[in-house]
Amino acid sequence: MAAVLARTVAPRIRKAGGDDLDAVNAVVEAGVWSWDLPERVKRLVMASYRYTAADLDHVDLRVLELDGDLAAVAAWEALSPRELPERIPAALLHGLYVSPVHHRRGLGTLLVEDGAEAARAAGQAGILVRAQTGAEGFFARRGFIRLPVRDEARDYAARFWRPVS
């Protein structure tokens, strides 16, 4: 008797709405708990990583659904040209979270590429990321270049840039 293969639906990326916030925050929380940080630090920062309805006015929250689950989340903002030394318009990847059960399946990459396409369509020159230490390799493998720290009081230590044109 032939084995029956499980059918997998292609991932779907869409804009998140207010009805998605509970599922979005569940993915964010699971993602943060998977970080290599002390448990106490994770507990202390968790509230600042959760999204609210008010955030939807300022952040473009994109979700990736896989097999009926909300599996990954990307939060994007337009970055003011004054934030970059070259004073060019760019998109800021504010947050990228993948549910740990879906790690290493390319979902984060799909969301980064979705954001790159949106940035290109909006006339932005590239993407800026302020990466957590554990995510630096992920962004480097996707063509992001680490930016030097020019102002230690202002610059995030692990900033990465990738042009989208």
**What is the count of β-strands?**
7
Low-confidence stretches: 1-5
Widest beta sheet: strand line-up: 1-2-3-4-5-7-6
- Taken as a percent bin, the fraction of beta residues is 25-35%
> What is the SS-derived class?
alpha+beta
Tally of discrete structural domains: 1
Mean pLDDT: 86
Q: Between the first and last Cα atoms, what is the distance in angstroms?
A: 51 Å
CATH superfamily: Gcn5-related N-acetyltransferase (GNAT)
Element string (H = helix, E = strand): EHHEEEHEHEE
As a percent range, the share of helical residues equals: 25-40%
CATH class membership: Alpha Beta
In summary, what is this structure?
This protein is α+β, with helices and mostly antiparallel strands and 165 residues long. It is 27% helix and 26% strand.
Describe what this molecule looks like in 3D.
The protein has a single domain, classed as 3-Layer(aba) Sandwich (Aminopeptidase). Helices cover 27% and strands 26% of the residues. It contains four helices and seven strands; from the N terminus they run E-H-H-E-E-E-H-E-H-E-E. The protein has a seven-stranded mixed sheet with strand order 1-2-3-4-5-7-6. Strand 2 and strand 3 form a beta hairpin. The protein is globular.
List its salient traits.
disordered N terminus, 165 residues, alpha+beta, Aminopeptidase, seven-stranded mixed β-sheet
Give the topology, please.
Layout: E1 12-15, H1 21-33, H2 39-49, E2 60-66, E3 69-79, E4 90-98, H3 107-121, E5 126-130, H4 136-141, E6 145-146, E7 159-163
Parallel strand pairs: 4-5
Antiparallel strand pairs: 1-2, 2-3, 3-4, 5-7, 6-7
Helix pairs in contact: 1-2
